[in-house]
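This section describes the prediction task in plain terms. A model, or a person checking by hand, is given the sequence of a single protein chain and must write out its three-dimensional structure as a string of tokens. No templates, partner chains or ligands are provided. The sample shown here is typical of the held-out split.
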Amino acid sequence: MRKLGQTAFTVVTLLLAGGLFASFRWFGGISPMPLVAAGVSDAYLGTAPAPAFPAGLDWINTGGKPVSIAELRGKVVLLDFWTYGCINCFHIIPDLKRLEQKYPQSLVVVGVHSAKFKTEGNTRHIAAIVQRYGLEHPVVNDRDLQVWNEYGVSGWPTVTLIDPAGNVVGQVSGEGHYELLDKVIGTLTADFAGRKALNTKPLWFAGLHADMPDAPLLYPGKVLADAKGGRLFIADSNHNRIVVTTLDGKVLSVIGDGKQGLKDGPASAAEFRYPQGLALADADTLYVADTDNNALRRLDL
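The expected answer:
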């Protein structure tokens, strides 16, 4: 009987503690529901107003000017909570770009860089990563996790959707959610377009992004030395090509036309997407890890 009483006391204590934690979380910010359960109908309408971005944060791809939740009204807004020390955060970038291309008039992506470690909170470092990965949407430096806490986020990466009325629809964490996001964004776009409540005009920051440096190599990912053949093979990652030089740097050939793509053919027409790893099988065969195409490519030298 005494054991039963102690057990009951423990259960009650845990329940109270859980309730208290939930209360603190609620008052510390919104507690959005999972995106898959965000709506009881196909409308996916939000109910909790999206918290405003705190003042005084650093912004990238906007000329330093802050973006406000209020001026995004009429757009479907996707908040991407990420940090550059998280490989999973980079894995969802292709999905974000696909969504931006599919919904150019109705969708606005805002990157919220919520640093896990102190050095990741340096705006200059974040800007370099934004530039390297070709992110053209606004990115805010949430170095003190203010936005993170306001939106009830608990892991990287997390995506939060806000409907055109300015209400939070829901959020989802991790990778592999393109189909879900596509469905919800498509439904919201059609719904609010039908109500004449969708803003399809470009916003003031559309198309602004840091210029890439004019350099012979751009963020090269790997280099392979072929001492026997007297060659260097360089994965010129952000130029989407492979550069072959002598050991002292004289260019012998360039493989890839510089455009992002997955295309075989002669050296001047082949296309890669952020190539990285290199392995020489023999004097005439080079293998390339074509990273963002998720492919291994064989080059006939």
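For orientation: Residues 2-28 form the longest helix (27 residues).
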